[in-house]
Amino acid sequence: MVLVVGGAGYIGSLMVKHLRRRGERVVVFDNFSRGHRAAVDGVEVVEGDLRRPADVERAFAGHDVECVMHFAALASVGESVKAAALYYDNNVVGCFHLLEAMRRHGVERLIFSSSAATYGEPREIPITEQHPQEPTNPYGETKRAVEQMLRWYQVAHGLSSISLRYFNAAGADPDGELGEDHSPEEHLIPNVLLTALGRREVVQVHGTDWPTPDGTCVRDYVHIADLCSAHYLALERLRRRPGCEAFNLGSDRGHSVLEVIAAAERVSGRPVPWRGGPRRPGDPARLVASSARAREVLGWSPEHAELETILRHAWSWLERHPSGYRK
Question: Looking at the DSSP assignment, which residues form a beta bridge with residue 249?
């Protein structure tokens, strides 16, 4: 059985669907502070919070857990700068409670949702796994701290793990069933599409004076369905080979904010007004992955790498669910 921590969230819920389609038994652990019950309808759920050890214990009790997939981190760069204590408490302390529960129950495999935010301002593009990890915000620091914990838990306690360093997760379930619904919504692609839909007046662009070709930040967008396929490949690798590894997951290409807006206009057929504003604290100018190692070692081959495909799936879900999961 796979325990999916944060399984009611954006990526976690699609991972649950992905696992079940492959015949895996799944149990979800979520506190529903940012996830959605409708996203895990029909799935066994243990409701609880990683920061409460008794809740974590209930997730393992009575379940023959073979592997844990951990998606339950708080993940807003801007929020982390303003509320660093909250991020350390949830992301680091919460993960410590999870690892200790795994030790008590003899569970030796973990797949961790890490982030490109661990790299900080890139010294070179594209970014490989050998790039120094020098986060520029508390969110990235908490992800790096967990990766370091996993390294030493493997040495001391034999816990095997794979950390998957996402670049910018985006898109929606290609089947149209599951999608992105955060409150407040801070991610660029859903905000651009909500503006196209008329639910927002304008896209706020955080800086137009970055050292990039059009002055706006450049990011590497990776489809959430491709993230899920990478997680499953990581699960298969852990079943064959114990250890502690990390892999980048991206499309290996970058798109600026203005390029995303233009692509959204093409996909939706609607205008997307935008307004320039100040830079956001903690943001690097460019983040672009090298995912060569994931392709070579895991055998990962993204199926939805084109930006317009990502936007088309996100737009399709939003048109069907204009108010998100909330009716």
Answer: 166
Are 199 and 268 members of one domain? yes
Please give the model's pTM, rounded to 2 decimal places: 0.95
Closest alpha carbon to 107 in 74, 67, 146: 67
> pLDDT tens digits for 51-82?
999 999 999 998 999 999 999 999 988 899 89
Q: What is the distance of C-alpha 225 from the center of its chain?
A: 11
Contact between residue 120 and residue 172 where contact means Cβ atoms under 8 Å apart: no
Decide if 182 is inside a domain: no
Is the domain of 245 the same as that of 257? no
Residues 28 and 105 in one domain: yes
Task: Determine the number of helices (DSSP H) and then strands (DSSP E) in the chain.
Answer: 11, 14
Whether 247 and 226 have beta carbons less than 8 Å apart is answered as no
Residues spanned by the domain of 261? 188-219+252-320
- The active-site residue out of 139, 166, 221, 232 is 139
119 is catalytic: no
